[in-house]
Request: fold
Amino acid sequence: MAQKKQSGSMPNAHLHELFVDELKDILGAERQLLKGLKKLKDAANSETLSKAFQTHYEQTEGHIERLKSVFGELGLTARGKKCKAMEGLLSEAEEIIEEFQDSPEVVDAALIAAAQKVEHYEIASYGCLVTYASLMGHKEAQELLGMTLAEEKDTDALLTEIAMSEANS
Ligand SMILES: [Fe+2]
Ligand SMILES: [Fe+2]
Reply:
């Protein structure tokens, strides 16, 4: 992957199609997640957790806007595609909400687990996208995607914090 291939002025041009494909996947995923986060928020018992989901909902809207800018930078129309992984993660989240809806102290822990699985998927996706952008010299895209990556990591850490404090309260 570190192999440098020159095509026009763009280094590592062989990554271009993969980069665009992964951008479409994560755009679809973020859009699916907007709906999912509403359900997670509605199912949360703790005020802190509910707020965290609301905050991440707003951040996710920002992630979508950043992705649109990245597509714009590349001279492409922002078109997402259905992300099967996000679909699966969110359907597992719904399953777990149903299973534990009668035990409030368990449901919040289950929601955190489901949300962290989502965050880890996003962290992996944005991590790769930042790497590709860097390898191809898309500086602006690299910066935008890096900002989102940092927010996904922060969300993951916040969820761990909430899990620890709620469990000890
Ligand atoms: Fe996101
Ligand atoms: Fe996220």
